[in-house]
Amino acid sequence: SSELTQDPAVSVALGQTVRITCQGDSLRNYYANWYQQKPGQAPVLLIYGKNNRPSGIPDRFSGSRSGNTTSLTITGAQAEDEADYYCNSRDSSDNHVVFGGGTKLTVL
Amino acid sequence: EVQLVQSGAEVKKPGKSLKISCKGSGYSFTSYWIAWVRQMPGKGLQWMAIIHPDDSDTRYSPSFQGQVTLSVDKSISTAYLQWSSLKASDTAIYYCARLWGPLDTSGMVFDIWGQGTMVTVFS
User: Quick check: A26 contacting B, CB < 8 Å?
Assistant: First the structure.
């Protein structure tokens, strides 16, 4: 089965731009999706497919892909963006699901 | 409102059985796959398995095959996750989540999540 690799922790100054990455072989063929999870809450879908945002997600969140790496970019990070971020995708070998290990974002 | 509502927190002893639930509302329950995702204390998300409520077609992650059982009662729009013999290592929050799109062509997008069920197993 495939794996998705994320940096465990990333920090960004308030109002600045930050990129959170997700790397894996399956991402050469499939887009990754991004979820935000705040402490004590369920994950929330943030970005899916090429670069789609569900209704209600601010446009400061965007997604992109290059080779086997998918990135989540937050342009103008806000204090409320401090959370854990997870990517997921289809496993390249079968109809299974794979999640990245998660990235803890700190907004300074 | 489209939502998944899960059953409440459970505290069980090792070796006991347990069945937790996930009730869908606000949409056609039988039209979307339902997945279960584990989150152990302080850890990340792990996909466990997925079930289609219409025909109970089920796929398990190799890591959870034989460890848990998925089922569904479509008459009450409810999916279940059960254990026959709990272990301390089953202590975690379990989320159900709705898959957006057909499984075979899906980008594995989970658009609706339940609030989570905390399962604590200790002697």
Answer: no
